[in-house]
Amino acid sequence: MAWHLGRQPSRPSITVVEPRPFLGGGLAYSGEEPSHRVNVPAARMSLLPDEPEHFSRWLAASGEIERDPDAVWCNGDVFPRRRVFGRYVAEQLRPHLESGAIRHIRGQAHEVKRNGDGWIVATSGQPIAADMVVLAMTHPSPGVPSALTPIAEAHGFVADVYAADALGPIAPEASVLIVGSGLTSADTVAELDRRGHRGRILAVSRHGLRSRGHPEVRGAPFGDFVSRPAATALGLLERVRSTLAAADAEGVNWQSVFDQLRLQGPAIWSALAPDERTRLARRLRAFWDVHRFRIAPQVETVLERRRAEGTFDNIAASLVDSHRAGDRLAVSLRRRGRKQVETMHFDTVINTTGPAHGNALRTSLVLRSLADAGLIRIDRHGLGIETGLDSRAIGPDGDPLEGLFVAGPLARGTFGELMGLPEVARHAQAVASEIQSRLGALPTIEAER
User: Fold this and answer.
1) Measured between alpha carbons, how far is 403 from 410 in angstroms, rounded to an integer?
2) In whole angstroms, what is the distance from residue 414 CA to residue 129 CA?
3) 29: closest CA among 19, 40, 38, 41?
4) What Cα–Cα distance (Å) separates residue 98 from each residue in 26, 91, 92?
5) Per-residue pLDDT for 430 more than 50?
6) Cβ(378)–Cβ(356) below 8 Å
7) Are the beta carbons of 299 and 37 closer than 8 angstroms?
8) Is the pLDDT at 448 greater than 50, yes or no?
9) Mean pLDDT, all residues of the chain
10) Given CA atoms 384, 386, 390, 392 in this order, what sign does their dihedral have?
11) 439: confidence class by pLDDT, cuts 50, 70, 90
12) Taking residues 279-284, what's their average pLDDT?
């Protein structure tokens, strides 16, 4: 967001509040774990939506591929470590930081409030006055399922796998339950394996669906979902199924169909009535996620090897209850399609249920301050903050608030698919353009803003 703002003709004065020592890594791309890789080929990762090879060119010149030959998959696609992408973003930002166009305040923001026609951002240091504020927040931490609250404080329970050295204390032979079977779950298995873990790992989720992998040969996006967009969630599902059948008949892989769904996502989402959007999010999201959020082939290889060795499995089940059982953790669950409840014992239980976007207004101090003031609210689909089509937060009177923008995944209730890097970059570019168009109407911006 800051980088796209810094590229605008008006060159506004930009301040970023971020507690990490450098800008560009964030939650996803600042970790040092070597088994964590970007989950899409580098050729599809770029800060510039209209230059998809921007990151690939930087990567080729950086020497990172030579230092990490395993990043190159057998088909030539490159899946670098995530921290490498963070370095790329940091290098793009560096000229703006050195020139003073972007200022990095290393600290936590804990309150945003109105200040006349502008805003005041309270931080762990000096308050910051701003004409406009962009909420470009990281994903909230995962919520702990209610069935696991009895063991939430127990030794051996990992509430947030991204906490510092969360997996370090796990013994090599420990039996592990992973709650969730998406990307974070797959990364957890890969990290445990790299650390030398050889015990039994069981992943459990309601549908038992595991994130899918990438094709051996990438194809062009396939299908058309916007010429006559579906008006209902069921209609969209039928359209996807018929398109998949057509793709199969032409020898096109299913990933190409989902690539088209991603590209046309905003138009698909906007064609659905609000109730149909909610139905889509509640009924089909689990199926969408495992096909859309694919795992890097290096990670998939670990999962397949562990499965073949008999040390990894994933099942469909719902959690019923949990309790401490001596120095172990007992979890009761009901497998999908069965009535009886079974109780299993584990040394470690790891929560990888994904970001709790519906709880973001309670878990973030900044968002809670705005919500308590009645200035923002959760969107009706429970995906994030309600915004207008111009990405401004919807205020208490139902109209967009002047000068308060939402960028990234917390705006997906309005825009639909807004989780992956390509979509986030394009949205940041759009928000930067929207801000640029409004800067001319502001009084002269004071130097300290």
Assistant:
1) 17
2) 28
3) 38
4) 20, 11, 11
5) yes
6) no
7) yes
8) no
9) 92
10) negative
11) confident
12) 91
Amino acid at 292: R
Residues 366-381 have a mean pLDDT of 93
pLDDT value for 21:
92
Residue 397: phi and psi, rounded to 5, are -95, 5
Q: What is the dihedral of CA 427, 432, 435, 440, to 10 degrees?
A: -150
Q: What is the pLDDT of residues 375-396, one digit of tens each?
A: 999 999 988 899 999 999 999 8
Structure tokens at 66: 């030579």
User: pTM for this one?
Assistant: 0.89
* The pLDDT value given to residue 17: 95
Q: Which residues contact 159 (CB under 8 A, 6 or more apart)?
A: 141, 142, 144, 152, 351
- Three-class SS string for the chain? CHHHHHCCCCCCCEEEECCCCCCCCHHHHCCCCCCCECCCCHHHCCCCCCCCCHHHHHHHHHCHHHHCHHHECCCCCECCEHHHHHHHHHHHHHHHHHHCCEEEECCCEEEEEEECCEEEEEECCCCEEECCEEECCCCCCECCCHHHHHHCCCCCEECCCCCCCCCCCCCCCCCEEEECCCHHHHHHHHHHHHCCCCCCEEEEECCCCCCCCCCCCCCCCCCCCCCCCCCCHHHHHHHHHHHHHHHHHCCCCHHHHHHHHHHCHHHHHHCCCHHHHHHHHHHCHHHHHHHHCCCCHHHHHHHHHHHHHCCEEEEEEEEEEEEEECCEEEEEEEECCCCCCEEEEECEEEECCCECHHHHHHHCHHHHHHHHCCCCCECCCCCCECECCCCEEECCCCCEEEEEEECCHHHHHHHCCCCCHHHHHHHHHHHHHHHHHHHCCCCCCCCCC
Kindly give, in sequence order, each residue whose CB lies less than 8 Å from that of residue 60, ignoring residues fewer than 6 positions away. Answer: none
